[in-house]
TrEMBL record:
Domain HTH iclR-type as annotated: residue spans: 24-86
Gene3D superfamilies: 3.30.450.40, Winged helix-like DNA-binding domain superfamily/Winged helix DNA-binding domain
Pfam families: HTH_IclR, IclR_C
Every IclR-ED domain range: 87-264
SUPFAM superfamilies according to UniProt: GAF domain-like, Winged helix' DNA-binding domain
Superkingdom of origin organism: Bacteria
Organism annotation: Labrys neptuniae
Keywords: DNA-binding, Transcription, Transcription regulation
Name this protein carries in UniProt: IclR family transcriptional regulator
């Protein structure tokens, strides 16, 4: 039997605890199923979905059948397991603002990865966090990077801190309102003096806060108003072979790529 992760359990409780004024129970059930299956690459049986959601078999059966009919969920050939299809992925990549950002960014990121033999990734704000929307790996036999769709913490990562430093003031104010009296607020206040430094330099560089031995380079992609719409980051790995470039070279190239993608 598949063991459900705590993140899935939290997702299924999110609507019950939200206190939303307007409810749409049928929509909530469908979204609960999608969020549940998003954390289960091997899929789940209908019985496992019913147990995880604490719903009646009839409710889950009807919703699953509609999700299968609309192409969001696929049923195994044996008919006993359900998993997400690629439809949500395809819809996300049809979103015009995202497509307009990723389309010109990808070839520039690929060129950066070839030149530096380092990986890089592009993140955009997403509610109270950020998400990886593109990445590129170097041409060597090994690679180190983040997968597309990976969530990024805003206060505990280089990409997130760079976003915060260059975020639109209105968006930042809304974010801090949601973080009021939380650990996120305390972390933001501790980081605030560094944001001035990042704004002055136009980038962030420092040891990774997630992986020992990695130095993160992050440069904002700016709007016409000089606020961050995205961040381009390189988790720089110090290689021992002579063909590898320096971290200064990588930062210079990363700034050039970010500059080409920024709107002035």
């Amino acid at each position: 039997m598949t063991k459900l992760g705590s993140s899935n359990a939290r997702a299924l409780k999110s609507f019950d605890n939200s206190g939303d004024r307007y409810r749409a129970p049928a929509l909530d059930k469908g979204l609960d199923i999608l969020e549940l299956l998003s954390g289960e690459p091997a899929g789940l049986t209908r019985a496992e979905i019913i147990r995880a959601m604490s719903r009646s078999p009839g409710e889950v059966y009807r919703m699953l059948e509609r999700l299968v009919a609309r192409g969001y969920v696929g049923r195994s050939s044996e008919g006993d397991r359900y998993a997400l299809t690629m439809k949500l992925f395809a819809l996300a990549h049809r979103h015009p603002p995202l497509r307009r950002l990723v389309a010109p960014a990808q070839p520039l990121m690929d060129a950066f990865a070839r030149e530096t033999q380092q990986s890089c990734h592009l993140v955009v704000p997403e509610d109270d966090a950020a998400i990886v929307v593109a990445h590129a790996n170097g041409p060597g036999n090994w690679e180190f990077g983040l997968r597309i769709g990976a969530p990024i913490d805003l206060v505990a990562t280089s990409s997130g801190q760079t976003l915060l430093a260059f975020l639109d003031p209105t968006a930042l104010k809304e974010l801090l309102t949601r973080w009021a009296n939380t650990k996120k607020q305390l972390a933001f206040e501790m980081l605030a003096p560094r944001f001035t430094e990042y704004q002055r330099d136009g980038y962030r560089i420092g040891p990774s806060q997630e992986v020992r031995g990695i130095e993160d380079l992050s440069v904002p992609i700016l709007s016409r108003e000089r606020y961050a719409v995205a961040v381009l980051s390189c988790p720089f790995v110090h290689r021992l072979d002579a063909s590898a470039g320096t971290i200064t070279d990588a930062l210079t190239l990363l700034k050039i790529v970010a500059g080409k993608l920024s709107v002035f």
